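Before relying on records like the one below, remember that each one covers exactly one chain. Contacts with other chains, cofactors or solvent are not represented anywhere in the record.
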Amino acid sequence: SLLATLAGLAEQASALDVELRERLLAGQDAQIRAALSASPQGQALLQQVDRFLERYGFLSANGTDFSRTPWVEDPKCIWQAIGQGAGRFVSERRGEAVQGVQKIRERAHARVRAQLGGPQRFLFDRLMASTVAYIDLRERSSFVISEESFQMRRIFVALGRRLVARGDLDRPRDVFYLDLDELRQLITGTLRVDAPEGSARERVAVRRAAMEADAQLELPDTFCGENPPICSPPVTEGNRFLTGISGSSGTARGYACVVSDPSQAPVTLSQDDILIVPFTDASWTPLFVRVGGLVSETGGQLSHSAIIAREYGLPAVVNVKNATRLILDGELIVVDGTRGHVYRLDREEAVA
């Protein structure tokens, strides 16, 4: 699996000298590769990391959005996870979590079966088996979709490079601001420069600015009509108690770490931290084993966040609206994954 392979890489890196391990934490790919290439031990690790990226490098902050930069293009978070000594930590955390979760499942399963008769018990066992199988398939399908999206990204980025070389665009990523018809016209030289939208460069600039502005808007969950109302930013003061959906049982107390992109997560993440995220995908998984709890703005009990949190015995609350805005980075909070509650502690409670 992804985490098992990453754990092996970290264990392999533990034999490197301190200076090299610190270089890994910096996450600068070119400098790391140059440093590792200077020794046989480093070259061996480099070869294994490249194999890892060949298999999992298609993952990004959002696997279904092929405009997002994948690991293979920017492996910063992978180098940092390896440099942090994730191998030992992942192995210990995974072993403890799997044992604990397995015991909980066995007790719950036995308790329910004891209350059922013969035919009901038979149906229950079949439903339980199919549920477990389909939850696993849900994660596998997400992986496959992410991999297919990556292949589409490769095609568009390659096209973008050619358009840049031809002088039509400034950056390969600019292709993501044009629709398919515009790209076809740009390739064939039939894109009208005198159209109201202007040249390809002008259209890219306008749309990039519009997307950056739209990213600052807060929209309601549902609305009717073509002009949705714009919500005012949530007020952080006074919101000491937040509710969501129970994603994984248990309680955790720690310092909030608000992260919108796994590649930007702090290197110092530990079990004293509670991860506050908008959502998670497969590429977020390495962060789960480094923290003490999880709060997600979206998702339900069958979401990726909830499934992986339960697998690692990580208390989690999902579907907490505006969590990344209401919860301040670094403040002390308590996550009650059993009830689906998040408590923001004030200074007096934190001291107590």
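The chain is about 50% helix and 10% strand.
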